[in-house]
């Protein structure tokens, strides 16, 4: 939410020029046939693509290899830029200055002891998590024995050179077998399975595996034509050939035909989504089997791919030869409103299933069964600034605006408006709440109005320093008390009397939202001081801020869902957090542009959460939380990566 919106709103609703009277005017209705504001969607999974280039921090645009470690870090090999590590936010680059044997890295591999091995044209680098160790090829082997793949066999670290020589690394030195296992043959293709078994396709037209320093499992592929490539298919190794796909059957030394006639060469199969990643003529595609055949989506054009890796959080990483690093990721949110509906300030789904949306300057929108009605007042433009949509216990829909509040009339399909001339405290309405007696409480720019049986009663705070801009409100039925967020904190109204809450840490800070949490607690979202978790019974409080993982301390909404998660809207996206019994943050997911929130910036109290339905109003429209399936994926626990003493002036390793 742009803070200037709020300031402009307060200014014009308090201006004398704005306080002209209009009594029960009806606004213009524009029917927009078949324009869907809240679209009806199935469980289709949405994705987005992001390209990381030199300007984002990768050291070189030719990405040769990718691996993910046990902590969830992505390690990136480049052809000349060294090694990079990505933690989801920033790239850390390692070069020969940090201890690499060479900045040209051709492959990456983790051994069973979690050492990271870097393959270079003339040697190796081992990284144990803290130190890089160089391992050089013997001088006589520098130009001829270039390793292309590493593996473990009988607790020994081995590698295969392009010339067919098997090397063993012992005590950080290299020992070679005396003869090439290839004889006069050459390697056309090679592949290492998830289990660590090395497959080679040789110039004699056969497939072999390498075991005990020799070629084994001779499989003739002459009958299936040219072999294009190997790929893993769940727990099996498949080959793609001129005559189709085949599974390698090592027990019987043969190929077994499998379905699939793909447009491109298969680079990777993703079993979680049953997707084949392929490449054809520098186009990267996703190919999926459907009842109607193979569905093909072209994801990237004009690049050559070296590797595709699906990490344990569900993102697909694409290493390109010159185009940088690509990330194809699940989208948690989908923008479901049209381009005409932007700056969404209020959302509500009423008891009849109608979806209501209030915009900043473009009126009210209502959608039902795929049809949308747009209510726009061409006479009083401030009435098109909709700040709230609420439904009474009796099912009446009310809206608050920059010029009064309106009651929706089912019969005439119009709004009847109430302004200051009818008894409202001010024409600028920020929020509308109902209590257990069906009494309406209206927070305005100049006090609180109570509306019951067609009559208004106005309450104002006498303390001039505290102010009467009622930015947020919540009625507690158990306490029979109205909580009010203002420019300077929180006040309560009970039996016609105001009381100001004494809250530490938010002096001179606006409170933009008030929502219940669990059975008896309250969440106060502030304009710069984070969230206050408040206990009305003992008046204690706990502050939750960006130090606890929030994206920002400017909180435009904070509300609990049915599973106990707190959804927090800020100018930097949405956090979904979980608190433990001590009210400490134990789970935290930050959603931003990479998760589908293209507009990123949320608006004050612009949300609707009811069971599986979750809608949020942003500066560029309405977003629906899609809750993509993540059961097959995992997240990673926090872990210590470094200790700094005196702000990094001294390396902690000197004292450890």
Q: Please, how many helices?
A: 1
The span between the termini is 47 Å
- Range of strand content: over 45%
Mean pLDDT level: 88
Number of strands: 59
Q: Determine Rg (CA atoms, Å).
A: 32 Å
> Which shape, going by the Cα principal axes?
elongated
Helix-strand category: mainly beta
Give the strand order, joined by hyphens, for the main sheet.
Answer: 1-34-33-32-31
The portion of residues assigned to helices is under 10%
What does the largest sheet look like? 5 strands, antiparallel
- Low-confidence runs (pLDDT<50, min 5 residues)? 1-43
Write the layout of secondary structure elements.
Layout: H1 3-14, E1 28-32, E2 46-52, E3 63-68, E4 74-78, E5 83-86, E6 91-94, E7 107-110, E8 116-120, E9 123-127, E10 132-136, E11 147-153, E12 156-161, E13 166-170, E14 173-176, E15 187-192, E16 198-202, E17 206-211, E18 214-220, E19 227-233, E20 236-241, E21 244-249, E22 254-258, E23 265-270, E24 275-280, E25 283-290, E26 293-301, E27 305-310, E28 316-320, E29 325-331, E30 333-335, E31 344-349, E32 355-359, E33 364-368, E34 371-376, E35 386-391, E36 397-401, E37 404-409, E38 414-418, E39 429-434, E40 440-444, E41 447-452, E42 455-459, E43 472-476, E44 481-486, E45 489-494, E46 497-500, E47 511-517, E48 521-526, E49 531-535, E50 540-544, E51 557-560, E52 566-570, E53 573-579, E54 585-591, E55 602-610, E56 613-618, E57 621-625, E58 644-645, E59 650-651
Antiparallel strand pairs: 1-34, 2-29, 3-4, 4-5, 5-6, 7-8, 8-9, 9-10, 11-12, 12-13, 13-14, 15-16, 16-17, 17-18, 19-20, 20-21, 21-22, 23-24, 24-25, 25-26, 27-28, 28-29, 30-57, 31-32, 32-33, 33-34, 35-36, 36-37, 37-38, 39-40, 40-41, 41-42, 43-44, 44-45, 45-46, 47-48, 48-49, 49-50, 51-52, 52-53, ...
